[in-house]
Design a protein that fits this description.
This protein is about 0% helix and about 45% strand. By secondary structure, it is mostly beta strands. Strands 2-29-28-27 form a four-stranded antiparallel sheet, with no helix packed on it. Strands 3-4-5-6 form a four-stranded antiparallel sheet, with no helix packed on it. The chain is globular and about 60 Å long.
Length: about 425
């Protein structure tokens, strides 16, 4: 029988009203990263390994939640690392002042794969493992073969400042001020064809800190685009960039440097000297998380698969949340009042992962796994279930590493989420 296909539409899920458990003392604690380098980029890999790219000190890796950090090999020992990206196979790409490097052995060694004359500042990888790099001088670099070869394609603006990819494969690129001669605006562009062409979807022309630009772009698992702008706030699109809503994270306005999400969909925003802010309702409201964190410039932020938040600073090391941010407190006797599908855990995983969902009433339910192109791989549930909370374990035997999607359908409720198998 031919594989069935479906459109990978990532819907906003119904929110369950669970209370998060957070520490009553400090939210943050320092890790044992004692080096005085600026930590410019962070990335989270399989098995909760954390990679830190620094200015002038190369790459460091921690395999124990920041307790210890090992430096990269001699090839990148003194390199300035501007961006890190990890594909579904676990290969790590690093954008440096010397070009793009790749590691196929979890950061133990690195090889140069692309050395352009004018540098690459930002990296992004889509679900098909296509690698994209942006920098300046009106171009984007891309690799269709996991970094073995690269193509240079055009870009409509001069300085590409941030780069992100959505679950449907669309690229979003933010630019900084003074891009086109004499025009002091920063913009956000979308490409729906792997960087062949670009369309402007947002323009920022309200400087708040002496410049205009879109400083950082991030996309959550539901395909919602978040961007930090020079106007001192965050913009969000839930329709692939067609419309935007603005949010003031804090008053007076603050400069936001980086964004990330945890598995519950909570948004974390790092700032230049105002700490970290968190939104648990998709950006509508924000709370400040500063206990245990010094007043310092935050350069990057990432959440590990088990929910710990890491922030990199300019010269004061790396800090980590004291507790995971995805721990939830649930009542075992409360009847669900709505459908919901939770993010699988662990994620990434190997070889099994748990998927939880809730039904407010009994009915026929299907839970299916699809690969990135949309082919149905297996059916985990296809039967009538009672109302309540349920969980299913997927044993991914015989499956290759990569990005997959799981879709729950019950009555009129349909929701899809992404999961990553990392062998």
């Amino acid at each position: 029988m031919k594989p069935q296909k479906f459109a990978l539409l990532l819907f906003m899920g119904f929110c369950c009203r669970n209370d998060l458990i957070f520490p009553q003392t400090n939210f943050w604690q320092p890790t044992k990263f004692v080096h005085k380098y600026r930590v410019e980029t962070l990335a989270s890999g399989a098995n909760n390994h954390i990679f830190a790219g620094t200015i002038g000190g190369g790459i460091f890796r921690s395999i124990d939640h920041g307790e210890n950090w090992a430096p990269s090999d001699s090839v990148l020992k003194n390199a300035s690392v501007l961006s890190l990206a990890i594909n579904a196979k676990g290969d790590i790409f690093a954008a440096t002042g010397l070009g793009v490097f790749r590691s196929k052995n979890n950061g133990a060694s690195w090889d140069s794969v692309y050395a352009p004359s004018n540098g690459i500042w930002r990296l992004a990888i889509n679900s098909r493992n296509l690698v994209f790099g942006g920098g300046f001088e009106f171009h984007v670099a891309r690799s269709l073969d996991n970094g073995d070869s690269w193509q240079r394609v055009g870009f409509p603006d001069r300085f590409l400042w941030s780069l992100a990819v959505s679950p449907n494969g669309h690229l979003f690129a933010g630019t900084n001020c003074c891009m086109l001669a004499g025009i002091r605006t920063g913009s956000l562009y979308i490409s729906t064809n792997n960087a062949e062409s670009w369309q402007k979807v947002y323009e920022e022309n309200s400087p708040a800190f002496g410049y205009t630009g879109v400083d950082y772009v991030a996309v959550n698992d539901s395909g919602h685009i978040f961007a930090a702008t020079s106007a001192g706030g965050i913009i969000r699109s839930t329709d692939d960039g067609k419309s935007w809503k603005k949010f003031d994270v804090y008053q007076p306005k603050i400069s936001i440097s980086c964004l990330t999400f945890n598995l519950n969909g909570h948004v974390f925003a790092g700032t230049y000297r105002s700490g970290v802010f968190r939104s648990t309702d998709n950006g509508e409201a924000w709370e400040r998380l500063i206990t245990g964190l010094p007043i310092v410039e935050l350069r990057c932020i990432v959440v590990s698969p088990d929910g710990y938040v890491f922030v990199g600073t300019d010269g004061m090391g790396i800090f980590r949340s004291v507790k995971p941010t995805t721990v939830v407190k649930e009542s075992t006797f409360e009847q669900p009042t709505s459908f919901y599908l939770k993010q699988n855990y662990p994620n990434p995983f190997n070889p099994s992962t748990t998927i939880q969902f809730a039904l407010p009433r009994s009915g026929y339910v299907t839970l299916k796994i699809f690969n990135a192109p949309g082919e149905e791989m297996t059916t985990l549930v296809a039967k009538t279930l009672s109302a309540g909370k349920h969980q299913v374990v997927w044993e991914a035997k015989g499956m290759t590493s990569g990005i997959y999607f799981y879709r729950l359908q019950a009555a009129d409720f349909v929701q899809t989420r992404k999961l990553v198998l990392a062998r």
